[in-house]
Amino acid sequence: MTNDLLAAPGRSPSTPHHHSRLTTGLVATVIFLTGIAPLATDMYVPAFPGVAGDLSATATQVQLTLTTFFVGMALGQLIGGPVSDQFGRRRLLLAAIVLMTVASIGCAIAPSIGVMTAARFVQGFAGGWAMVIGRAVIVDLATGARLVRVLNVVAGVSGIAPIVGPLIGAVILQLSHWRVSFWVVAALGVAMLLAVLIAVPETLPPERRHGGGLRAFAVAGRQVLGRRRYVGYLVVCGSAMGALFAYVATSAFVLQSMNGMSPIGYSIDFAANAVGITLGALLAARLAGRVPTRRVILAGQIGALTAGLAMLAGALWFGTPLPLAIVCFFVLMFALGLILGNGGALASAEVPEHPGTGSALLGFVQWVAAGTIAPIAGLGGETTAVPMALLMIAGAVLSMGGLLVLARPVRRSE
User: Fold this and answer.
1) What is the distance between the alpha carbons of residues 349 and 1, in angstroms, rounded to a whole number?
2) Are 81 and 306 in contact (CB under 8 A)?
3) What is the pTM of this model?
């Protein structure tokens, strides 16, 4: 994991930095960039039932807007890094923010679910592009322990977005219309554009750019995907991400449409579950070096599987009672906190010579999994949680398979 943080494309640790400095304003702007995508999603989730009604769409069609957003984000992150290595950071970052803002306005005025779906793809692509370039800006300007500290601050503060997002979304729904949430994201895009213009200089001068771009990335990607254990940890994280977004895509229907919970109540529960995944990640960090990382991941997978089985039993025989759904969702999220960070760290450790490529592929797989699962989870419509429960179970089982089969230890070294 440290290798992943300390590596930068085209730069060795001894390479002198550009004259740009890592200022507080620049770090704050990168935090803003990193938080905008989850905020754009989580503000919108409480509005799913309203969107379905206003745009005459089914639950699956509404959840497809999540799919296109996440696929767009995956592609943006996969492509944005190599392209900015070749052409520089600042202009591409500004272009991505402008595109994301325009797409947000498109979502706000969308006359149909088809237009909304297309606009969400563009919004996700531009947001993912901006996120990966923001991280690259940090890597351009810092090395060693300072880089580790700054990236941890970025990750920690950006983690507030999934907690705040649904609460803001619920307040908007109480006071106004779901379309207002997208106008809010567009306004944040304008603020982000001004922040980048003021605080973020070009951090990759021409002499440090390289022309390999996507071709060099493809070569490194083939080498990374040839590592069995790395692929195993990809499965661990991708499957866990699928289980997570089975919850994200369907929980509004389970708690609001099926159990009568208010948008404010749902958003409070959503925020509590975001705290749950954060607590799981903090526990995983505390156990690092004390308990084998693979054992912590397995404990999380067992917890996620238990939550899925309990949810399935409740959906089949008890009408998905509200207390059971609330408990299962929290257990799932806490368990995923034990899995995702640890799985990503072990994946990076398997490919120390290609940390950037390994990180990009991991992000791509996770967001594609999220986008693929979201509409499948809604196949039951607004009346049953069975598809969601089955996906929670499948995600946990596949994640276990990745850990215990593909990523099994090499006997001579472990």
Assistant:
1) 6
2) no
3) 0.70
Count other C-beta atoms under 10 Å from residue 1's C-beta.
Answer: 18
CATH topology classification for 1-211: Growth Hormone; Chain: A; (1.20.1250)
For the chain, give every residue range classified as CATH 1.20.1250.20. Answer: 1-211, 219-407
The residues facing 8 across adjacent strands are 11
Q: What is the separation of C-alpha 96 from the centre of its chain, rounded to a whole number of angstroms?
A: 18
Q: One digit per residue, pLDDT tens: the chain, 414 residues?
A: 333 333 333 444 434 444 567 777 888 888 888 777 777 777 777 777 878 888 888 877 887 887 788 888 888 888 877 777 778 888 999 999 999 999 999 998 988 888 999 999 999 999 888 887 887 787 777 765 565 456 556 655 665 666 677 677 777 777 778 888 889 889 999 999 999 998 888 877 787 766 665 677 777 778 888 889 999 999 999 999 889 888 877 887 888 878 888 878 887 888 888 888 878 887 887 787 788 889 999 999 999 999 999 999 998 898 888 889 999 999 999 999 888 878 877 887 787 666 556 767 777 887 778 778 877 777 766 678 888 899 999 999 999 999 999 988 876 544
Q: Which token pair is 89?
A: 């950071």
Cα–Cα dist 134/140, whole Å: 10
Coil vs helix vs strand at 8: strand
Alpha helices in 288-352 (DSSP H): 293-317, 322-350
What fold characterizes domain 219-407? Growth Hormone; Chain: A; (1.20.1250)
Task: Identify residue 273 by its one-letter amino acid code.
Answer: N
